[in-house]
Amino acid sequence: MTVRKKTPDEIRETVREGYGKIAVGEELAPGSKSAGGCCGPNSASCSPGTDPAAFARSIGYSAEEVAALPEGTNMGLSCGNPAVIASLEPGEVVLDLGAGGGMDAFLAGPKVGARGRVIGVDMTAEMVAKARRNAVAYSKRSGLANVEFRLGEIEHLPVADASVDVVISNCVLNLSPDKPQVWREIARVLKPGGRVAVSDLALLRPLPAHVVESVEALVGCVAGAVLVSDTEQMMRAAGLIDVELRAKPEYVRSVMSFEDPLYQRIVENLPQGTTPADFITSLDVQGRKGLAAKKPGSSCC
């Protein structure tokens, strides 16, 4: 039976609904374990049962970083630590795409300090509301008021041209039905010389069609993932330079060790003799926007 391909709007609504349920579910059970990440443990059902702190440590966050987060911020939605690969500096303006409850934004805040600013963008109203509540606890703990959250789609960022030093994102770009447009938006908002540091899921080779068609895989950040080579092509087409891509197979091994039900289902549907790690990887992505071209007649130095 042929499955009708979802339209871009239907994909966005599926993702928005899934992450909205995660945000609301977390609020309904304060102090409980994470609802599970749509990119992390228990992603297929987003049900309780996995320690989000342990999962975060397994994919690159330090125990100190996890402990410093406001309660309920870490929902197990990560596949890497983009703030680390971004090498943030005091005074920089950072944009976090698909900020969720604010985890990476709150880790970036102290790195850029009082002179810097962090802007988190998310298309899910429930997540933005959650992040704004978490920001109160962040400010009390850190003494900083340098993090804000805006409602918007990453294909149409509510951010001015050439206003951002660094763009970060964590396991979100794969969810977009229009990834080339996301990369064009990243290039638009970056200042000349600005950089991007993304942790995302990517494919080493195409997944079987019946895995891609699974709604759980879509919300689980798997069906929307593209080949590593496609990511590089989209970045360069958007005008980004110094592109670096580093595959991290340890992410899939970590997810499998937590017995993520989504990945267990994927295993059942893969060709015999293969594993999810043969198809899926976490990917550290870095690039830079070139300096503005010199105007005709201007002098160099």
Q: Which descriptors would you attach to this protein?
A:
seven-stranded mixed beta sheet, Rossmann fold, alpha/beta, disordered C terminus, 301 residues, globular
Describe the overall structure.
It contains 12 helices and 7 strands. By secondary structure, the chain is α/β, with parallel strands linked by helices. It has a single domain (8-289), classed as Vaccinia Virus protein VP39 (Rossmann fold, 3-Layer(aba) Sandwich), CATH 3.40.50. Strands 3-2-1-4-5-7-6 form a 7-stranded mixed sheet, sandwiched between helices. Helix 1 packs across helix 6. The termini are far apart.
Beta-strand content: 15-25%
| SSE run | HHHHEHEHEEHEHHHEHHE
CATH superfamily: Vaccinia Virus protein VP39
Task: Identify the strand order in the major beta sheet.
Answer: 3-2-1-4-5-7-6
> Roughly how many Å is the radius of gyration?
19 Å
Structural class of the secondary structure composition?
alpha/beta
The CATH class, by name, is Alpha Beta
Write the CATH fold name: Rossmann fold
